[in-house]
């Protein structure tokens, strides 16, 4: 795909080959966008389907289609020009992320250090708004 050919609106994705992710028995073919302050779904199509987000990334890099990924996951590729962000004016900034670990009376110092590192990295990338400690 050439630069700037993804279209002007999320509905224009219907004319493109999209790379779909599958988890369990669910295919993620309804991509969410923010338009006029509201979140809306667009049902996309594609011949390529995988259970691996890494494969989505590799196929997207190889030019096999349009994939959907978190900005923090592909930031270096966007900065270098290897990937192009499509429809940035419709991007959603919100995502729920949780750090899950077994309940313990005393959290090991290495676990606390890792959690603190993740929170600091996410805050430095996204800013402090909306990221709880």
Description:
The longest helix has 18 residues, at 109-126. The chain is globular. It is 28% helix and 16% strand. The protein has helices at 53-61, 71-80, 109-126, and strands at 20-23, 26-28, 30-35, 38-43, 49-50. With 133 residues, the chain is of the alpha+beta class. It has 3 helices and 5 strands, in the order βββββααα. 7% of the residues are buried. Strands 2-1-5 form a 3-stranded mixed sheet, covered by helices on one side. Strands 3-4 form a two-stranded antiparallel ribbon. The N and C termini lie far apart (40 Å).
Give the end-to-end Cα distance, rounded to a whole number of Å. 40 Å
Radius of gyration based on Cα positions: 17 Å
Strand order of the largest sheet: 2-1-5
Fraction of helical residues: 25-40%
Beta content comes to 15-25%
> What is the number of strand segments?
5
Q: How many H/I helical runs?
A: 3
Low-pLDDT ranges: none
Structural class: alpha+beta
**What's the rounded overall pLDDT mean?**
87
Task: Describe this protein with a few key phrases.
single chain; 133 residues; alpha+beta; three-stranded mixed β-sheet; two-stranded antiparallel sheet; globular
